[in-house]
Amino acid sequence: QVQVVESGGGVVQPGGSLRLSCATSGFRLDSNGMHWVRQAPGKGLEWVAFIKYDGNIKDYVDSVKGRFTISRDNSKNTLYLQMSSLRAEDTAVYYCAKDGDSSEDYMGVWGKGTTVIVSS
Amino acid sequence: AIRMTQSPSSLSASTGEKVTITCRASQGISSYLAWYQQKPGKAPELLIYDALILKSGVPSRFSGSGSGTDFTLTIRSLQSEDFATYYCQQYHSYPLTFGGGTKVEVK
Fold first, then answer.
1. Confidence of residue B7 (pLDDT cuts 50, 70, 90)
2. Residue B89 with chain A: CB contacts under 8 Å
3. Residue A33: which residues within 8 A CB-CB, separation 6 or more?
């Protein structure tokens, strides 16, 4: 059964850092593209970051470039999102998602999310 | 970035009614469009990809159509479990972008 489970959320001060983790099971992490998507309170969905199945391509929404880094550890079947220089506008539920059947570029399976609150 | 515009932003409907949600892309995206359903307090779930292909297990009352810039999600006969917010997403090019969502509420 394909499953992704996020963890690592919490409350952090502006300017601080946080690392989110996404534990995966039921599929090979090194054979699938993975995404992070976030949802600010009461708002819609915003794609944040992508890592290609082979790890050679990573991409980010402009608002997090230079501050967030997506990575993975295939041996641990875990995806990460390292977040630094956090801002109030980064407050959101962060979802990890596995790619789809026909393309790496949509989200076929989602986790339940982990909440990040940036506040002093 | 490609802008995705959904309409309406919300609608009220009764069980058994047919519901249609529209998604328009700011430039042509071929058929690189997905639809997601999100219920309150829950994660989104994929319904449709490649504009018209239902994910396995999704009820056949859901259907998708369109290509280029104009797309439609149709729920043939609304059921109680379909009251939710629906999002479209383009994957023609990065950055990936979502529509603003359409909330389907009970009339």
1. very high
2. 45, 47, 106-107
3. A50, A51, A52, A53, A98, A99, A104, A105
Please report residues of A whose CB lies closer than 8 A to that of B95.
47, 59-62
CB–CB of B42 and A112 under 8 A?
yes
Judged by CB atoms closer than 8 Å, whether chains meet at B49 and A108 is answered as yes
Give Cβ neighbours of residue A108 (< 8 Å, ≥ 6 apart).
A97, A98, A99, A100, A101, B46, B49, B55
User: Is the Cβ–Cβ distance between A59 and A4 less than 8 Å?
Assistant: no
- State the average pLDDT for chain B: 97
The whole-number pLDDT of residue A119 equals 97
Q: Which residues of chain A lie closer than 8 angstroms to B54, CB-CB?
A: none
The mean predicted confidence, pLDDT, of chain A is 97
State the smallest CA–CA distance between residue A108 and chain B in angstroms: 6
CA distance B28 to A71: 31
